[in-house]
Write a structure and sequence with these properties.
It is a single chain. The chain is α/β, with parallel strands linked by helices and about 500 residues long. The protein has 21 helices and nine strands. It folds into two domains: about 5-380, no CATH class; about 385-500, no CATH class. It has helices spanning about 5-25, 35-50, 65-75, 80-110, 120-130, 130-135, 145-160, 165-175, 180-195, 215-240, 250-255, 265-275, 285-300, 305-320, 325-330, 335-350, 355-405, 415-420, 445-455, 465-470, 485-490; strands at about 55, 60, 195-200, 205-210, 410, 425-430, 460, 475-480, 495-500. The strands form three sheets. Strands 6-5-7-9-8 form a five-stranded mixed beta sheet, with helices on one face. Helix 1 packs parallel to helix 5. The radius of gyration is 24 Å and the shape is globular. The model is unreliable at about 195-205 (pLDDT under 50).
Length: about 500
């Protein structure tokens, strides 16, 4: 390992550790999302029972990130505190991403006179201290792992790695987030567009696709085999447990947020989602990113634009299927490293045309100051997020575990912390582990009938999420969190209702 790589890992660990300490000073040590607890439930069951299930003894296709759950399960096997292990994995993933993006910069330098390789350290430091990624490192989610595998796949692609090994990386990427299959497809297109060979004199020749179709087929078959080795068991598991190849969450989210598709056309949804990761120092890189993108296209360096295409495509995928930007745009966070890469590269290219040194200096200083300022603001946001999840979801779960009778039939919309602390199966109103509710999960009338048909005794949800149920006299509040942080953030407190 180079000294620079070691420094980046240490800085990533320090950045993540600072976020955790800041939250701990506010009295909250945990995760920033309830979904992080869902991963913990799968990981614990995998480690302690050897089964991929949310409820013990009931195999489930509810996880969108089985590879993350597998890595988390190692902490349980090693008897390491699950929070410490999760923070460590996230921080190391951010550090590894900083290393991978530097190596990707080296690969891309061949495509433009302004070599991004000489800027690689700045890109790496930007990633370590960019507030979205710092937040993600200790969120408990798979985001930093997905970021690292995305960068690794692209770096190895430009290094002309063997097809089957690229396929394995693409498979791990897809097992970390399903949308990784789209980046895997982009890499496949890049592999097919240009196959390299060596003549007898040792010179490297660019062989056109149509002239070497057999070579292309061999490369893509090798790539596909590596990908299928990992993906096929996952698809078979989903088919066996739920009858579909995608996890239940894929279908549940589409139904849950279907109303959002009616509020804005696709282009507006896409622009809104695309804009979210630029909040912070990234916005100062926008002119550079646009400039280098246009310049690479003008030079017809299409292969150098594959990561740029991913930067644009990922928000488009969510605009098509899940147009939400909550939790600081966590679904769009994986494009941040590519914003940094192209933004800093393009800014350097612009500086070669800007003669005023004071303007260049002011620009660079502004990026640095805004980067650190938002890192600090991000720490505050993280502490607030952890506080809300702890006092809403975790405390509610503990109350239910302590007060619900053994024969209670519990229903809940947010299932992560509840699944971790409440030892018995329950009804999932969001459909992740109770797919029966997916067809009518936003129809409160049918949902109410379903709860009565299942003889539910407790229902747990935020009142503004199910206003008709909350106002029904047969749903009697028996516990409310009273979390001040939630109200200060403009939300309502979670309520446990006894169903009569």
């Amino acid at each position: 390992m180079k000294r620079r790589d070691g420094l980046l890992i240490l800085l990533a660990l320090a950045s993540a550790g600072a976020y955790v300490l800041f939250a701990a000073q506010r009295g909250a040590v945990g995760f920033a999302l309830d979904d992080a607890w869902i991963h913990q439930v799968y990981a614990r069951n995998l480690a302690t029972r050897g089964e991929f299930a949310f409820f013990p003894g009931q195999p489930s296709a509810g996880s969108t990130s089985p590879f993350w759950a597998i890595l988390l399960s190692l902490g349980y096997l090693l008897r390491i505190d699950f929070r410490v292990w999760t923070y460590l994995l996230g921080a190391l993933s951010v550090g590894a991403s900083a290393i991978a993006v530097a190596r990707l910069a080296d690969r891309l330098s061949a495509f433009h006179p302004v070599r991004v390789s000489r800027l690689a350290l700045y890109v790496s430091l930007f990633i370590v201290f960019e507030w979205h990624l710092a937040w993600s490192a200790v969120s408990g989610m798979e985001i930093p792992l997905f970021v690292f595998l995305s960068l690794l796949l692209l770096e190895r692609f430009y290094a002309h790695e063997r097809g089957w090994l690229l396929g394995l990386i693409a498979g791990l990427l897809t097992l970390t987030r399903p949308e990784g299959v789209v980046l895997a497809a982009l890499v496949a297109v890049g592999m097919a567009s240009e196959v390299r060979d060596t003549d007898k004199r040792g010179q490297t020749l660019n062989l056109i696709f149509y002239q070497r179709s057999s070579a292309v087929v061999r490369v893509l078959v090798s790539y596909g085999i590596g990908f299928a080795v990992l993906i096929a068991p996952y698809l078979a598991f989903n088919l066996a447990t739920s009858g579909t190849i995608f996890p239940n969450t894929f279908y549940a989210k589409n139904v849950e947020y279907a109303v959002l598709f009616e509020r804005a056309p696709f282009v507006l949804r896409w622009l809104q989602l695309l804009a979210v990761p630029w909040v912070g120092a990234s916005i100062l890189l926008l002119p550079g990113a646009i400039f280098i993108g246009i310049d690479l296209a003008r030079r017809r360096e299409w292969r150098a634009l594959i990561p740029f295409a991913w930067l644009l495509i990922l928000p488009a995928l969510y605009a098509l299927r899940l147009p939400v930007s909550y939790q600081h745009g966590r679904y769009e966070m994986p494009i941040v490293p590519f914003i940094a890469l192209y933004g800093i590269w393009g800014t350097a290219a612009l500086f070669e045309r800007i003669k005023w040194w004071f303007l260049r200096t002011a620009w660079v200083l502004s990026i640095a100051v805004v980067l650190i300022a938002f890192w600090v603001l991000g720490a505050s946001a993280y502490a607030t997020d952890v506080t809300i999840i702890d006092c809403e979801m975790v405390q509610t779960a503990r109350w239910v575990a302590a007060n619900a009778p053994a024969d209670a039939v519990v229903a809940a919309h947010d299932i992560g912390a509840l699944g971790y602390y409440y030892p018995r199966p329950f009804i999932d109103l969001a459909g992740l582990v109770t797919p029966d509710v997916i067809p009518f999960m936003r129809d409160e009338g049918r949902l109410r009938e379903y709860l009565f048909s299942r003889h539910a005794t407790f229902a747990i949800f935020f009142p503004d999420w199910y206003p008709a149920l909350a106002s029904d006299s047969r749903f009697v509040p028996v516990y409310q969190t009273g979390c001040a942080a939630t109200r200060q953030a403009g939300g309502t407190n979670m309520v446990v209702y006894q169903v009569q």
